[in-house]
TrEMBL record:
This is Eukaryotic translation initiation factor 3 subunit E. It is found in: Cytoplasm. Belongs to the eIF-3 subunit E family. GO terms for molecular function: translation initiation factor activity. It comes from Carpinus fangiana. The lineage of its organism: Eukaryota, Viridiplantae, Streptophyta, Embryophyta, Tracheophyta. It comes from the Eukaryota. Keywords: Cytoplasm, Initiation factor, Protein biosynthesis. InterPro entries: eIF3e, eIF3e_N, PCI_dom, WH_DNA-bd_sf.
């Protein structure tokens, strides 16, 4: 469904050549008109060095054998610029290709950054590091969702504090992919509880059917709402093969019948289940229902969660500054 298309939010964090597979996917799914996709491809290519590809698409869109003169001139410009870049990067490439020179690198990342910065003006500021993490996460989507173990690996990467902080700060739409990975993955259940807190905290900045589905089930205990969101999840391209989502609700609806429990046994079983899972819930025997109270953390709990690692990060930053200051006289 076009309304859930994240391309406008993802594309700014990708190299232009990585946007093309997304446009190809949108074209295959017929989410937009073919002419609109082809026009977008040409517009995207106009600011890249992929001039030959742009010429081919121009011929396909306009059914012509000739291309505009500005494309021909652009091709000459691109070839000249590529040669200049090769010459500029030659010293660093030579360094990396020299085994003896590479041995100068150490396990100390700060030393390596300082040494490379002095020789080749290659230094990443903290802000650049955050931006690099955001780019890495966007780029990695192409790998993780085409790898047999990708749904586990994406959790291991995205769920690290420094990457999760980058998501919450600048790219909350990536929560969709992390949520999907948690839904279809049973190996990373211990981290799932903390991730639900993130979903709850970020509902004001980003939500879609997948994150709302998790919020309905694990935060609000709104199973009617979860059923509606589950149907919408199919429109956001959640594969049907993960049918256990549907089974999830079927279990709730036919639980007592399948377990062959009478009313008193079913009630006693549910009471033990509530106690064991430490849920804030109670049974209304008169109405025959289970009442589950949503668990909304107060502002103080959210503040503690956001700042619990602040002391360690501050100490790490101080150590880096001290190391940098001590290295200054050695120049």
């Amino acid at each position: 469904m076009a309304s859930y298309d994240l391309t406008p939010r993802i594309a700014p964090h990708l190299d232009r050549h990585l946007v093309f597979p997304i446009l190809e996917f949108l074209q295959e799914r017929h989410l937009h008109e073919d002419e609109q996709i082809l026009s977008s491809k040409i517009e995207l290519l106009n600011k890249t060095n992929m001039v030959d590809y742009a010429m081919d698409i121009h011929k396909s869109l306009y059914h012509a054998e000739e291309v505009p003169q500005d494309m021909v001139e652009r091709r000459v410009e691109v070839v000249g610029r590529l040669k200049a870049l090769e010459e500029a990067a030659a010293p660093l490439v030579t360094f990396l290709q020299n085994p003896n020179a590479v041995q100068e690198l150490r396990a100390d990342k700060q030393y390596n950054l300082q040494m490379l910065s002095e020789r080749y003006q290659n230094f990443a500021s903290p802000m650049n590091q955050v931006q690099s993490r955001i780019w890495l996460m966007h780029w990695s989507l192409f790998i993780f969702f085409n790898h047999d173990n990708g749904r586990t690996l994406i959790i291991d990467l995205f769920n690290q504090d420094k990457y999760l902080n980058a998501i919450q700060t600048s790219a909350p739409h990536l929560l969709r992919y992390l949520a999907t990975a948690f839904i279809v993955n049973k190996r990373r259940r211990p981290q799932f509880k903390e991730f639900i807190k993130v979903i709850q905290q970020e509902q004001h900045s980003y939500k879609d059917p997948i994150t709302e589905f998790l919020a309905c089930v694990y935060v609000n205990y709104d199973f009617d709402g979860a059923q509606k969101k589950m149907k919408e999840c199919e429109e956001v391209s959640v594969p049907r093969k993960y049918a256990w989502l549907k089974i999830f609700f079927s279990v709730y609806l036919v639980l007592a019948e399948k377990l062959n429990l009478n009313y008193e046994e079913a009630e006693r079983w549910i009471v033990n289940l509530i106690r064991g899972s430490k849920l804030d819930a109670k049974i209304d025997s008169h109405l025959g229902t289970v009442i589950m109270e949503p668990n909304h953390p107060n502002v103080y709990e959210q503040l503690i969660d956001h700042t619990k690692a602040l002391s360690g990060r501050t100490q790490k930053l101080v150590n880096q500054l001290l190391e940098h200051a001590q290295a200054q006289p050695a120049r």
